[in-house]
């Protein structure tokens, strides 16, 4: 075997970790019989060890800080969005307290009158709002301080605040029926709705 | 596991969480810095390039494909920056020089015998700066390969992807670089 080229090539393949096993045998037996190649091989391995050796190559202490300071500033939107994502409960609580102190609560307290959307051909009997047979409401129906009876159809949700859904009828509701009785659950309902809107805005 | 944590941080950064990038910097800074240092041979400059590499990685994070190894992607940014930097400093003929196989190693000076370093000081700073000096004597394209191969022990295939050169070329350059260094370092 030619010491200068063929064997040295095998040594490098060995160091690269891709020496075929029959070649490895060839290399081994040659090294056993050839001083020069043994020496060469030792030197190569030492070189690899020296270059690989755990060098004290560490960047300075403030490396990370410098990188972080060098990053482009986050936009306000991303900051808020992330904050909301990371702290959904705090966000909900914050919104809750804003509502607590706001006029919403006052509105609730002052407002015991039956409220329902006008201009939808709804019929009112005592404190019950009726969707008459043959009438189709194409949106959500929100009724406050009264009951709801659907004889016709509602394609959206039915939201009843401080009232009941009277189910004895044959009408249909495509969406959900949400009954909100307590002031706090009403608030929570409003907040959830708000929060959903907030997320919608951020996700757009 | 640390790898999973990194994957998670990368996802967060992609979603716009800048603070999650800190963990990534902490984790990779040592390797990125060492690779840059091997290539440019100067601590201050290596740090500068490594920082720039992280900032570019952050800015371009959306183009990182999560099915691939993050380190490979990051090292590619770093080595490209280091190569650019070297190009600005040195004429091209030097950067693109080939080490001839065999004995044609005219780029290197002989080491006088009295300049030998004691064998048990492999870890010493002196030895390290001597090794780095010899690495710096190699043409740039050998340095980048030696940096990648010996700092993170990347496979030949990974190196070929990072530097966008064929595996065969990587192999030849590692062999030649190793031979060149052997001649310089055998007396260390
Ligand atoms: Zn031999």
Could you characterize the architecture of this molecule?
The complex is a heterodimer of chains A (204) and B (188). Chain A has helices spanning 3-16, 21-33, 35-52, 63-70, 76-86, 88-101, 103-110, 183-203, and strands at 123-125, 128-131, 136-137, 141-144, 147-150, 153-154, 158-161, 165-166, 172-173, 177-180. Chain A has eight helices and ten strands. Chain A folds into three domains: 3-53; 58-110, no CATH class; 123-203, no CATH class. In chain A, the strands form three sheets. In chain A, strands 1-2-5-8 form a four-stranded mixed beta sheet, with no helix packed on it. Chain A has a three-stranded parallel beta sheet with strand order 3-6-9, with no helix packed on it. In chain A, strands 4-7-10 form a three-stranded parallel beta sheet. In chain A, strand 1 and strand 2 (128-131) form a beta hairpin. Chain A is an alpha/beta fold and 204 residues long. Chain B has 188 residues and is an all-alpha fold. Chain B has one domain (2-185): RNA polymerase sigma factor, region 2, helix turn helix motif (Rna Polymerase Sigma Factor, Chain: A). Chain B has helices at residues 2-14, 21-40, 43-59, 70-89, 92-95, 125-136, 140-151, 156-163, 167-185. The relative contact order of chain B is 0.12. Mean pLDDT of chain B is 83; it is low at 101-119. The complex binds zinc ion. Zinc ion binds next to helix 1 and helix 3 of chain A. Chain B: InterPro entries: RNA_pol_sigma-70-like, RNA_pol_sigma-70_dom, RNA_pol_sigma-W_bacilli, RNA_pol_sigma70_ECF_CS, RNA_pol_sigma70_r2, RNA_pol_sigma70_r4_t2, RNA_pol_sigma_r2, RNA_pol_sigma_r3/r4-like. Chain B: Residues 24-90 form the RNA polymerase sigma-70 region domain.
């Amino acid at each position: 075997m030619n010491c200068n080229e063929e064997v040295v090539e095998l040594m490098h393949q060995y160091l690269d970790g891709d020496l075929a096993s029959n070649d490895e045998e060839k290399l081994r037996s040659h090294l056993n019989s050839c001083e020069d190649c043994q020496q060469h091989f030792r030197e190569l391995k030492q070189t690899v060890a020296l270059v690989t050796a755990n060098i004290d190559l560490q960047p300075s202490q403030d490396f990370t800080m410098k990188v972080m300071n060098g990053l482009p500033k986050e936009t306000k939107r991303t900051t808020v969005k992330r904050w909301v994502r990371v702290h959904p409960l705090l966000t909900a609580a914050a919104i809750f307290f804003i509502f607590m102190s706001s006029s919403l609560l006052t509105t609730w307290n002052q407002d015991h009158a039956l409220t329902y959307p006008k201009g939808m051909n709804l019929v009112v009997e005592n404190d019950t709002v009726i969707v008459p047979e043959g009438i189709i409401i194409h949106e959500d129906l929100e009724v406050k301080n009264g009951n709801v009876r659907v004889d016709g159809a509602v394609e959206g949700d039915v939201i009843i605040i401080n009232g009941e859904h009277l189910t004895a009828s044959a009408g249909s509701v495509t969406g959900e029926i949400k009954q909100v009785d307590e002031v706090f659950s009403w608030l929570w309902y409003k907040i959830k709705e708000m929060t959903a809107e907030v997320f919608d805005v951020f996700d757009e | 596991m640390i790898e999973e944590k990194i994957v998670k941080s990368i996802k967060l950064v992609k979603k716009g969480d800048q603070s999650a990038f800190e963990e990534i910097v902490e984790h990779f800074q040592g390797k990125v810095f060492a690779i840059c240092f091997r290539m440019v041979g100067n601590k201050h400059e290596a740090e500068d390039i490594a920082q720039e590499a992280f900032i570019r990685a952050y800015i371009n994070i959306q183009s990182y494909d999560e099915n691939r190894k993050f380190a490979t992607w990051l090292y590619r940014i770093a080595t490209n920056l280091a190569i650019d930097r070297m190009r600005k400093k040195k004429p091209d003929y030097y950067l693109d020089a080939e080490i001839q196989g065999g004995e044609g190693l005219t780029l290197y000076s002989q080491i006088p015998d009295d300049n030998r370093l004691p064998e048990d000081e492999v870890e010493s700073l002196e030895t390290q700066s001597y090794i780095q000096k010899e690495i710096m004597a190699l043409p740039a394209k050998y340095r980048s390969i030696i940096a990648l191969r010996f700092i993170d022990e990347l496979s030949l295939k990974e190196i070929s992807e990072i530097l966008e050169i064929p595996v065969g070329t990587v192999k030849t350059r590692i062999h030649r670089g190793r031979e060149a260094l052997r001649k310089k370092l055998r007396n260390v």
